GntR family transcriptional regulator (Salinarimonas soli), 275 residues
Amino acid sequence: MHAGVEPSKTRRLYLLLRERIVGGALPAGARLSSEPELAALHGVSRVTVRRALDGLEREGLIRRQPGAGTFVTGADGAKTIVADFANMLAHLVEMGRRTRVRLIAFGYEAPLPAVAEALRLSPGERVQRSVRVRTIDDVPLSYLVTFVPEGIGATYSDEDLASTPLLSLLERSGVKAERASQTIGATLAGPEVAEHLAVEVGSALLSITRTVFDAEDRGVEHLEALYRPDRYAFQMELMRIGRGPERRWSPVAPTAFKANGRRSRPSSSPGSPRA
């Protein structure tokens, strides 16, 4: 079998089995066919089958029991972070508490023109650049490249960044994040990112570019993030407002949580979402 064809066959088999598990066709507790049986059924090599199963196991969708076989744990085995789109800054701190981070790079450098423009830096001003991989239950979630003006970045260390959410560090330095400009798109995983996120090269990723500003509209953080779409999703609640032909969809305030964990209705009026 041609070596260049194998990765695409691995991806197809992985997606096929994943769809059957998530969709319920293969329920929790079901025993998968053996590797030779799957290879014969789908017309691929055992190496392809093994790699596809490796991906499902990393997601927590299956478990291998030596001597007994491979069993489905169910879609609940793969935890996903769901972000409240209307309350993004608060969500970032909460996600920092629920996940772990591994710091890959940390240093100071001259910014690229696009970064300098996004942060509205003065000529010659440097930035602190960091690269982190965030995980949930030891499974990679995101690949984060962050740029912070040097004057702000100098207020914390690499050890701080490896253990504390960046937004908390910014606030500790006296920065008050007021608003953020964010763009969401999609891209494909290159070799380095694919290795860190434990996905195949060329896998689809969620791409987020965000610049955070303080009360004086100065850029305090620029983020270029890549997320595994099977681990991260956005949620937004909308409500129809207006009358007649002007009737439209509008975001509503973030859903609040009562002490018992049950959701409560938003307290603000429709069309007046909180910042």
In short: The first strand starts at residue 62 and ends at 65.
